[in-house]
Amino acid sequence: MKIAVITDDGKTISQHFGRAPYYLVLTIEGGQIVSREMRSKLGHNQFSAEAHVEDHQHGPEHGTDAASHNKHVSMAEAISDCKVLLCGGMGMGAYESMRRLNIQPLVTDQSDIDAAVQAFIDGKLMDHTELLH
User: Fold this and answer.
1) Number of domains in the chain
2) pLDDT tens, position by position, 91-112
3) Which residues form the Dinitrogenase iron-molybdenum cofactor biosynthesis domain (predicted)?
4) Per-residue model confidence (pLDDT) at position 67
5) Would the pLDDT of 32 be above 80?
6) CATH label of the domain that carries residue 75
7) What is the 3-state secondary structure (H, E, C) of the chain?
8) Res. 43: pLDDT tops 80
């Protein structure tokens, strides 16, 4: 099974799905990580030509409209072979888009990738949906 983790550096889990520049994709077999691969990730910066994302305000409908879902689909293309996405935070729209794409998003309060992945393997990683925005 392959899982993806949003990251800025390949060691820690990014706190913001939309701004993270990379996915670390891990292949897990027999309860062990057998390979790691850094993949570039589309994010807010790539979509900033369409809107000034640095200046926008998050309203109640932010990220849940069809245009946002299409952006989330573009962001997820790089991990279409993954079953799970670990992140430190994301918007509700992105969370729901991942679910619609059959990628299970898990929002974790852990920052260390290896510790979070081991907790996932052990079935102990909690989905902290209270961290959604």
Assistant:
1) 1
2) 999 999 999 999 999 999 999 9
3) 9-121
4) 85
5) yes
6) 3.30.420.130
7) CEEEEEECCCCEECCCCCCCCEEEEEEEECCEEEEEEEEECCCHHHHCCCCCCCCCCCCCCCCCCHHHHHHHHHHHHHHCCCCEEEECCCCHHHHHHHHHCCCEEEECCCCEHHHHHHHHHCCCCCCCHHHCC
8) no
